[in-house]
Design goal:
Blueprint: H1 15-27, H2 29-35, H3 40-58, H4 64-71, H5 75-91, H6 96-115, H7 143-151, H8 158-171, H9 177-181, E1 188-189, E2 194-197, E3 207-210, H10 213-226, H11 251-264, H12 273-287, H13 292-299, H14 304-315, H15 317-330
Antiparallel strand pairs: 1-2, 2-3
Keywords: DNA integration, DNA recombination, DNA-binding
Family: Belongs to the 'phage' integrase family.
Domain Core-binding (CB): 13-114
Length: 338
């Protein structure tokens, strides 16, 4: 049997072609890195973080020349530069999570360049990020206020019908803003009463969630009134403003609707879509008597430890222990040693 490779007529690349390919990669490595990211939000964040770093390091945006200059540094030079950049970020008073994200963007650039053969530097282990405790503040609104946010909406108008669907997606299903604005009409299956969502960190893979009978009815009346329910590719929630009518509701639009509805209910503290997600998760823990595993199906957190923070905050365990100590220390009868 002949070797399969002998029967293939593969064109050989000349040295000139290889040089052109390498030049193209060098000239657009940042563009290639961003294209390798699935999420538009991730691409936007990486671009902003890399812009900030190159402004600090070379006083310019990440031009091809600037990127080549950075990648030509030795491991020691890169590490020293990143230590200076990290100190600069902390002097600016940026949050630990922001510092870590910007360092991660640079490490990703170097790692990507190494895969392409443009550098041999390995930054992992050379510079570490700041320790961050996730979800320290998981507060939302209380259950009574959550009910009022939904019941106060005038559902006789198209805006009210849409906003009811939005509020129920946030409060009954704990969806994130990005998940909501990515929804299309075809993601809703009226027969099974389910919705396919693109979860955080899942790329293009969708997961199916079941909607309550109340939300199914709200969706039916909204799509019937809006008239766009027959197009599977149409955005599920649309803008109803004069300038963007019929276009997909944006993340900023979702934020403004939530803020406006909260203000109308007389809620004094700032309320955001993520605060309502916190509300849904905390209420679910209350109603399920702290059943973290069941609530994880709602929140879709990858780690149970994240939900443990919600549960601890909900129960105010630290406050209970502090009160216990206070009662002991203020009780003369208990002044005996324990």
């Amino acid at each position: 049997m002949n070797d399969r490779s002998d029967s293939l007529d593969l064109p050989e690349k000349s040295d000139t072609d290889l040089l052109k390919t390498r030049q193209f990669i060098q000239d657009d490595i940042v563009g290639l890195l961003l294209a390798d990211r699935r999420s538009e939000n991730t691409r936007r964040a990486y671009a902003a973080d890399l812009n900030d770093f190159f402004r600090f390091a070379f006083r310019v945006l990440p031009t091809p020349e600037g990127v080549r200059r950075f990648l030509s540094l030795t491991a020691a030079e890169m590490t020293a530069l990143l230590f200076r950049y990290k100190a600069h970020l902390m002097e600016r008073g940026l949050a630990e999570a922001t510092v870590n994200r910007r360092l991660a963007a640079i490490k990703s650039l170097v790692r990507f360049a190494r895969r392409l053969g443009l550098t041999d530097v390995v930054l992992e282990g050379r510079i570490v990020g700041e320790r961050v405790r996730p979800y320290r503040d998981t507060t939302g609104v209380d259950g009574v206020t959550a009910r009022e946010l939904v019941s106060s909406i005038d559902t006789t108008t198209l805006v009210g019908k849409r906003d009811t669907v939005l509020m129920l997606l946030l409060l009954e299903n704990a969806l994130r803003r990005a998940e909501i604005v990515a929804l299309r009409v075809g993601d809703y299956d009226a027969v099974s009463g389910t919705l396919s969502i693109t979860g955080k960190g899942r790329g293009t893979q969708k997961e199916c969630i079941r909607l309550s009978a109340r939300l199914q009815e709200a969706l039916r009346t909204y799509l019937e009134a809006s008239g766009h329910g027959g197009s599977d590719s149409a955005p599920l929630l649309i803008s109803l403003s004069n300038c963007r009518r019929g276009q997909a509701l944006t993340a900023d639009g979702v934020y403004k609707i939530v803020r406006t509805r909260a203000k109308a209910c007389g809620i004094g503290k700032p309320v955001s879509p993520h605060r309502l997600r916190h509300t849904a998760i905390t209420l679910a823990l209350d109603l399920s008597k702290g059943d973290i595993r069941r609530v994880q199906r709602l929140s879709r957190h990858a780690r149970l430890e994240t939900l443990q923070v919600y549960d601890d905050n909900r129960q105010d365990l630290q406050g209970e222990i502090s009160d216990m100590l206070s009662r002991y220390l203020s009780d003369e009868a208990s002044s005996k040693s324990v």
